[in-house]
User: Fold DUF1826 domain-containing protein from Roseibium algae.
Amino acid sequence: MKLQHEFMKDVVAGVGLATTPNGLSSIEHPGCAAAIWQRQPLKTFQDWIDSLEKEVLPRARIILRPEVVRAAMTDLFEGSRLPECNERSMLVDDIAAMANILASVMQVPYLRLRLDVISTNACRKFHVDAVTARLICTYRGSGTQYGISMNGEEPRRICSVSTGSPMILRGTLWPEAPRSGLLHRSPPIEGTEETRLVLVLDPISDIDGGLDQQLIH
Assistant:
């Protein structure tokens, strides 16, 4: 079956490993707490983004429709100190692709997009996000760590998502019980001089209730 080639179980219960972007839709399968698209970044792209000074890495916190993500990222990068090159265009294209994937899986009209530049122990405690689902992709630096928690304790086995591999995780608002116990965190990097560039996308069904972030239609 085609699905068997796109999606297989990880050694951590409830985590699926996808070999194509379509495999990320397996997050909808019963008992699947997270899905990871295992992919290898192009060496030219990884060398480029790893060589950038952290001051030029792009940052963003906006809510927008999936179809305008490409234009929004293009405008953001043109207004930043990020040098114009083929690799920059690749980053724009990939962020837009991630947005389309999550919007398609979750069937939502809006996304909350964050580009975070991290050089400290941000979110160092294992946790579950207070969202329906979340897509995380680390373009530079160490990837997200995850593991199964027993009785609320820190996971005994800790796994790491590869750099460049997107992960969709279920949050506390996902309508399924019992929960898998899968927790995740940002890798502890304080004091290592490592700088991470992380994309975070959250699905948003509506935008009522007031927003303290920029909204792009």
Notes: Confidence is low (pLDDT under 50) at residues 1-5. DSSP finds four helices and twelve strands in the chain. The CA atoms of residues 119 and 192 lie 8 Å apart.
